[in-house]
Fold these 2 entries.
Entry 1:
Amino acid sequence: MSLSRAPRRSRSTSGRAILLTAVTLAGAVTLTACGDGDGGSKSSGSAGGNYVTGSSGISTVAKAGRTEAPKLDGETVDGKTLDTTALKGKVVVINVWGSWCPPCRAEAPNFAKVAKEMEAAGQPVAFVGINTRDHVKQNAASFEETYGITYPSLFDPDGKLMLRFPKDALNPNAIPSTLVLDKDGKIAARTLAAVSEKKLRAMIDPILAEK
């Protein structure tokens, strides 16, 4: 009888091991990003023209193939109003973030530093945040205060602004995401991960240098 029970114990142990492995893998996947938007591809594809994703994770589009960014407007975290179409003529850096998102917290000091330095240098660059999935403004405001974010962020708790981007364009389909718009208001570069100061400048500088 002891021999007949042994296989049952083995199957039970094996089942627990498989379940543990599945849970571990699920946890690993969850840690790769705070959240996804429309589930679009993160690899090369079409954006009104071909875009190229480099080894750094930055996707770029040649000037002739860029898609115009949608109008992003509404109330900001500090209770003011903002319309990104009024920023044409400048390079616009759009960062999608949430106070609950660890990678967003990791990259926030880099955005604060680069934005302040470019403003001090008189560069024609505007930074705009899109705060999403924070259903209490105070959480977003505390985040900005903690990390020294001085540029405005549109308050978008339900992610409606992100849905304005055309699906066949470089769109912010993860949190965090960063887009760089050229001076004509077209999407020139994107990354779907937290950025270092060096990586952020690598996204901005080539677009800023365009004639």
Entry 2:
Amino acid sequence: MRTLGVDLAAAAKKTAAAVVEWGDGGARLAHLDLGVDDAEVVRLFGTCEMTGIDCPVGWPDAFLPFIAGHLAGDADPVLGYDGIEGRRLLAYRDTDRFVTARTGLIPLSVSADRLAHPAMRCAVIQAKVAAEFGAQARDGSGRLAEVYPAASLKSWGLLARGYKGRGGTEAQRLGGLVDALQQAAPWLDLAGHEDRLAGSDDMFDALIASLTARAVALGATIRPDAGHAGPARTEGWIHLPTGGLDGLRP
């Protein structure tokens, strides 16, 4: 099995991709790159059985009627989201609220925060993937799944905060996190990329996304139940690992 992890940014410059090959009782980081454009994401998708993408694959269901009502001058659908609770429904998806309740982590809002531009790019990439390989379900039941590296790290008992950024403290934490990952998963061969991973939180998150994609492929993530299945199909669903890292080992 080959899994792809993509840490998607608004531009190729900050977008990272990691491919992990699984077999013979272990796994190997077979490809790691930064500065990945749409064409490369689509190409790598085609070479892997499962892809984990660190970016929302959809918007809150409430967002479209709110915007459509505002555009048409129809007050009713707009007033239906009056107040802070209404705005939360516009800003956060069902899966965002589920992740917060489960992990205590608060995903950035796809409609009201810095994720908006990457999500627009993600929608275009999904359309490009669909044109070449067929449409992928937003709930992760196909070959593409939305992942959240911080939540995966927390699920695996690793540091989930404070390792992103260019400061000395963040860099030290990221280096320690790479070491901690190797200790927790000694069967994972980083193929000499340790320094690159320790020097780029984008590439590190792409690796975690690829490991999470393996968990999705094995059925070792939380799937949407009947109460969440509807929104998951339209808004997307963040896959949280249910077991430890060692459960990913072939």
